[in-house]
Amino acid sequence: MSVIELRVPSVGESITEVTLSQWLKPNGSIVRMDEAICEFESDKATLEFPAEAAGKLIHVASEGDDLEIGALIARLDTSVSSEEAPEKTPAPAPEQEQPKEMPASSASSSSYAEGHPSPAAAKLMREKGLEASQVTGSGRDGRITQEDVVKAEAKPEPPKVESTEPSRAPAPKQTAFSRTERREKMSRMRRTIAKRLVSAKNNTAMLTTFNEVDLSAIFALRQKHQDAFVKKYGIKLGFMSLFAKACAQVLLEMPEVNARIDGDDLIYHEYADISIAISTPTGLVVPPVHNVESLALHEIELAIKDLADKARQGKLTLEEMSGGTFTITNGGVFGSMMSTPIINEPQSAILGMHAIKDRPVVVDGQIEIRPMMYLALSYDHRVIDGSSSVTFLVKVKELLEDPVRFLLAV
Length: 410
Description:
Layout: E1 3-7, E2 17-23, E3 30-31, E4 36-41, E5 46-50, E6 55-59, E7 66-68, E8 72-77, H1 104-107, H2 119-128, H3 146-154, H4 188-203, E9 206-214, H5 216-233, H6 239-253, E10 260-262, E11 265-267, E12 274-276, E13 278-280, E14 283-285, E15 288-289, H7 297-312, H8 318-321, E16 326-330, E17 349-353, E18 357-363, E19 366-380, H9 386-401, H10 404-407
Parallel strand pairs: 12-16, 16-17
Antiparallel strand pairs: 1-8, 2-4, 2-7, 3-6, 4-5, 6-8, 9-19, 10-11, 12-15, 13-14, 17-19, 18-19
Helix pairs in contact: 2-3, 6-7, 6-9
């Protein structure tokens, strides 16, 4: 018998441990070479692990196990040929008439992955109260993806059929309150987020300064040019690209806000790689858009959309998650009026956007109703002085209130 040991591969320089989130092939199954057999969840992404050869799979690790790089996952008995695996499409018996249309469910034999949700899809199903039987999987081997869950939720419920049975008396109401609890292991991403947030609070001299910005000019710009922008570039002009562009210009003017500490040195960046906070079912991720200072607004919008789509589908690569010199997070999409965002280490500052609200403000001695947003800049006081943080916010505010200035780079 020839047996191959399958071990956790190296998935990145900074990653020393992964979690076996899900077996895609059951114990004892026959697998083919390069066929995905399990999923690993690292600090930054979910990765599929392929079989190194064809043979019989023997599980060693279990779902939920935390495994170091190089740890044993499974064994493959290569003396068992993959040809012994059942065909995916069984041929009909000679005496049976081949149906004209084969239902999708019988077109392929069921696999271990069929009807099983991915980790992100499973979390979303729990939130929506959906069962696996209510969702049709469109992923590999019939696996349920996040998109399948969203589609299942959007489907209208079938019309209720009136029962011919005599009506029964309603069950008596329960007066006792629920006291049930459930315990779930934190995902690796959630544990990593927790560690980094605590590290940022403990290892930086973090302060937050606030200002507010009148977005009347931004609203007028978007209203006037939105249709032409969409027609030419195929994407809407959003607030994030305008804020990122304004921040990039000021970051190059104030390099200390764009710097980071490395031991006893300060590293100054002559470019602006701005990390954009994106909420996903498994947690918050902050992939950067590179060289924002050199990109046009539509290029920033397209880059953000691409990163957001990949993040919510769990397809971000480690390279796409790495880097960044400054971060922008928008709590306003969830209705936040004011917050103190936490620094994304090793960066030294993060800008927090918030909800836009019509408020009365004094303009040239007159009270007017304007769309206003509170801005928050959390910064590491070891790198950035208080005066610099205030100046940074004021400069960003001035550019946003007169967007022609940063579009002309003046």
